[in-house]
Specification:
The chain is built from two helices and six strands. By secondary structure, it is α+β, with helices and mostly antiparallel strands. It comes from Virgibacillus salinus.
Length: about 140
């Protein structure tokens, strides 16, 4: 999925077109909820160890129908994702049971994380994001 936006600036001599092309990154890690987990779990997820603890990136929560529920970014992915399942102020606190898949993309640059998060929220119309929403 990608988007191309044209930004036009005019000078006295010519018109300049700058193309911005953003593509949703391919997930580096995907974990799914287990139906009857035998191991220690958080809301049915047992594979948090597959998510890097000390790298930054973006994460996406999906439901069983593959609808995007929430997009977030973090400097340290694993602790931030886990916090969404424990925190009383998380935007998904009332919908934690609905999450069935978590996709994680490593994105080292903080500015790129910000751009990807905003783009994905709006392009895929994330259900529970309340900030950075430009669609209605």
């Amino acid at each position: 999925m990608s988007i191309c936006d044209s930004i036009y600036t005019t000078t006295q001599e010519e018109e300049v077109s700058i193309m911005i092309n953003i593509t949703v990154p391919t997930p580096d890690v995907t974990i799914t909820k287990q139906d009857n987990p035998e191991l220690s779990n958080i809301y049915g997820f047992t594979d948090f160890h597959l998510i890097t603890r000390d790298k930054g990136g973006i994460f996406m929560f999906y439901n069983d129908n593959q609808e995007l529920l929430f997009v977030g970014k973090a400097r340290k992915l694993r602790p931030r994702i886990k916090k969404h399942f424990n925190d009383n102020v998380s935007p998904i606190k009332l919908h934690r049971d609905e999450v069935s898949k978590i996709e994680v993309c490593i994105v080292r640059d903080p500015a790129h994380r910000e751009i990807y998060e905003t783009y994905i929220i709006n392009e895929l119309k994330s259900k529970y994001n309340v900030e950075k929403v430009y669609f209605k």
